[in-house]
Amino acid sequence: MSGIRTISDEEIRTLKADTEACYKLGGGVTGFEPLTRVTTGKLSEYASFDERNKKRLIPIDVAIEADRRAKSPVIVKAMARLLGFDLTPMSQRERSTALTEADAHRVLYEATDVARAILDAFRDGNVDALDRKTIRKELREAIRALEEVDAGLDEGAAS
Length: 159
Description:
The protein is mainly α. It has helices at 9-25, 40-47, 60-70, 74-82, 101-122, 129-153.
């Protein structure tokens, strides 16, 4: 028995774009195959927008492995966002490490989330209350990432 899918084509495109972003953050799709149960070809299909693969999404276990490789919950965060949830780190402790390259990646991805939220808001030509709420949420996450970089600067130079 098959039901009606509630996930929209736009949401699928968003998940595929975030999957591609995760691959890039993790060093490229070819580096993911040894960590997952699927081939590089299959991994590419999960980020592909072509007609044959447009409905094919990354399985959750592979998404977790990809996010681990990227050292950031890029795909899982995208899934949570589609469900109306926000991910926060399990530990909100004060930063005690020096600045790292991962900080640059995190700032870039958070800023990209802000830009994506703004562009999504303008897709229908009407920026409504939900759009503003989403943009503000993404802005707060980007600001938090920038504040963490600022705190890392106080901890000395990375080795």
